What does this fold into?
Amino acid sequence: MRPSAPSAAANKADIRRLSNAERSAYFARREAAKVLRCVLQGDARRRAVGSVKSLVYSPSVRNKRATFALVCQTLKHLPIIKKILEDAHIVNSKWKRKEDLLFIATYDVLFGQAKQSTGDAEEFIIHHKIKLQSALEQLLSRKKVNGVDELTALYQKGDTPKPRYVRVNTLKLETRSAMLELGKLTKVQKDNLLPDLLILPAGTDLHDHPLVLNGSVFMQGKASCMVAAALCPEPGWVVLDACSAPGNKTVHLAALMRDKGKIIACELNKQRVRRLEDTIRLSGAFNIHVVHGDFLNLTPSVHPYNKVRAILLDPSCSGSGTSTERLDHLLPSYTTVPAVERVVYSTCSVHQIENEDVVQSILPLAASHGFRLAAPLPQWTRRGLPVFEGAEKLLRTDSVEDKEGFFIALFVKEHVDRHRGIPSGLSTQKTNRRVSGSTKKRFVTGTKLSRLLFYSSGMQTKTT
It folds into this structure.
């Protein structure tokens, strides 16, 4: 017969008797459950309030290291956890309402460090541990794998493997020649959207291939390649790449510009500057000027910044709210960059709060400076979430369908819009300007970003 649940007072007494390490682990599981709930709810709505890291490193979380590890490991094992809980038939309505804590406890009891039963979730899982272990063994047998690591890898692979994308560096090699050379190794086909992108079978190992080693081709994902293509800089322009390292998008810009004009590549971190410079040397580009410093500190009235025609802003993803917090005391004067005609804002995030919400919040100010949204790469059918009028001009790639989750917003100066035949932007009269609750946070972030895009400001360097 199952023992009755301990009273709240008894449970607190048990917690007090724990060692410091055990007590820390107990509270880390509770904090991890709160973060996991937020992550899963946001993912279900495609509207997360932040990344796992940004949520864990909020002031309210005390044991950040243990909490972060628990959340990441639980997410890694989540398909397995859900399956064995289902197969064991132990989850009742009570635990369905607290499944985030149940997931954390199941991971820590079965795969992690939990060795004591203090806490209702831990006690519940330990009481049913034999059933859960039996369900796990049966799952391993059905999937014909030898252990949890193999099972985890099997679930992470998914049904359709991601192809190997290779971008031809047209500064060194023609696309046709690259196809012929790579065709000696494996099947090669051209991408139907980007003419300098080749598609190879999944798992193709090119790390030691001569074309990779000499910079004739770059192993770069399709969504990443779409960013520079969306900006579409012309040869002879001055282009600003605000957050450059490791440099794949930077040298792609150089190839699109046929190594003419100038690219100003900003990078704050010294080690990443070295990596950026290595990428540039490998590409053979000569029109890239590296600035080891913060984009925020550039003076737009000084040559060559006053000649910038296009800006690529690809900041850190999932945590962009925190990455703009430092702008308040660093924003320079509101001196505009008069030559700018095109701005691309891109993220490697699928979350609305970092994508559509940011764009929507800056539209009024963007319009006041003559910028409108335009639709990059019009052949691409996957567009922005329909949360405001004109979001169909935004570009998205899907992490499942396209094997990468990316977001691209293209702003163009109004007169350039007509000149280049790009679809005109949207009216901002119907945008939602309500500023309360979470909307206020997005609006503040967007306002800072608008200054960053359309004034002389910038954003901190990417960390991924």
Remarks:
- The two ends are 52 Å apart (CA to CA).
- Residues 165 and 222 are 6 Å apart (CA to CA).
- The first helix runs from residue 8 to 17.
